[in-house]
Specification:
- This protein is of the alpha/beta class and about 325 residues long.
- It folds into 2 domains: about 70 residues, Transferase, Pyrimidine Nucleoside Phosphorylase, Chain A, domain 3 (Up-down Bundle); about 230 residues, Pyrimidine Nucleoside Phosphorylase, Chain A, domain 2 (3-Layer(aba) Sandwich), CATH 3.40.1030.
- The chain is about 45% helix and about 15% strand.
- The protein is built from 14 helices and 7 strands.
- Helix 1 packs parallel to helix 3, helix 4 packs across helix 10 and helix 4 packs across helix 11.
- The protein is globular, with a radius of gyration of 19 Å.
Length: about 325
């Protein structure tokens, strides 16, 4: 098999080129994941799509192929991708949010690769240091889940640019969870991922512009919510939780994740970030019918986070 026919479709020239259909995109990604694609053709396809911008059908087709190629994983309730690569990210507060969701009785599957982050922002380091895994929360490294997809992602080091694989990995949902949360860095991708998910038949999904591209809500800003509820597209705006002016991650004000989780540290901004992010995840799972009620649930989970007993989801 060769990628040449698919490169020809997207690169014929002005007036002749066209986007890939969902079926064509699925076939092309199948060739890529099989390892049969010539590197020149793979680079050409990815960079042409990068320059032109991927369509809903292309992202849906690529994602469908990745889902088909996936290893069998324990089924989770909530899929939580973490693929941010921003060098300026601070502590991964969203991990504490995911832990609160797990303590509510849900199985949460984190998966990711964070290649360009410092130690303080690395989810794997934080999970290991805090011992957050188990009790319903699991983390799966990309290179273990899909080495072919990992190799495509690492082409960023060759191209000097990201490619559509960054979007596809966020939409992957390798555990087949019934709900998913996704963060994006560029706002335009919220609608793209929502529409592509609808083409795939996904039902429950929440997408926000999060800190460094992670699913992590800024509590002092209004948050635009995209995604799906029971297959119907979302487009909502929720107001800020607190009144303050600052960036989500201030290099001059680093947040110590262990202290925040284990001690009664007086950091209202960080706590609001954790609780607000957990609330959106719980709302996605239909743990509460409204975001306000989900926020109350998340706040109670934070206050009782050191109790051993898991609740029933």
């Amino acid at each position: 098999m060769t990628l040449a026919p698919y490169v020809r479709i997207v690169a014929r020239g002005k007036g002749r080129a066209r986007p890939l259909t969902k079926v064509e995109a699925e076939q092309a990604m199948g060739i890529i994941l099989s390892g049969d694609a010539a590197p020149e053709a793979l680079g050409a396809l990815l960079m042409i799509l990068r320059l032109r911008g991927e369509t809903d059908s292309e992202i849906a087709g690529f994602t469908a192929a990745l889902r088909t190629s996936s290893l069998n994983m324990p089924r989770a309730d909530l899929d939580w991708p973490c693929y941010a690569a921003g060098r300026t990210r601070g502590a991964p507060l969203f991990l504490l949010s995911a832990k609160l969701v797990a303590q509510a009785g849900y199985k949460v599957a984190l998966h990711g690769w964070n290649s360009h982050q410092g130690t303080a922002a690395d989810p794997r380091t934080a999970l290991s240091t805090l011992g957050l895994e188990a009790g319903g929360l699991s983390y799966y490294p990309l290179e273990t889940l899909s080495l072919p997809a990992f190799n495509v992602l690492r082409l960023r080091d060759t191209f000097g640019l990201r490619s559509c694989i960054n979007t596809v990995l966020r939409m992957w949902n390798p555990s087949g969870a019934r709900a998913s949360v996704q963060g994006v860095f560029h706002p335009s991708y919220r609608g793209l991922q929502s529409r592509a998910a609808a083409l795939l038949g996904d039902q429950n999904l929440t997408i926000i512009k999060g800190g460094g591209g992670e699913f992590e809500r800024h509590p002092a800003k209004d948050t635009a919510i995209f995604g799906l509820r029971q297959g119907v597209e979302l487009n909502e705006l929720i107001p800020a939780d607190i009144a303050t002016t600052r960036r989500l991650h201030e290099p001059e004000q680093p947040i110590q994740l262990a202290a925040l989780w284990n001690e009664p540290e007086d950091n209202n901004f960080a706590k609001a970030t954790v609780i607000g992010t957990a609330a959106l995840a719980l709302w996605t799972l239909d743990a509460a019918p409204t975001i306000e009620q989900a926020s109350e649930l998340a706040s109670n989970l934070w206050k009782t986070r050191h109790q051993d007993k898991r609740r029933a989801g």
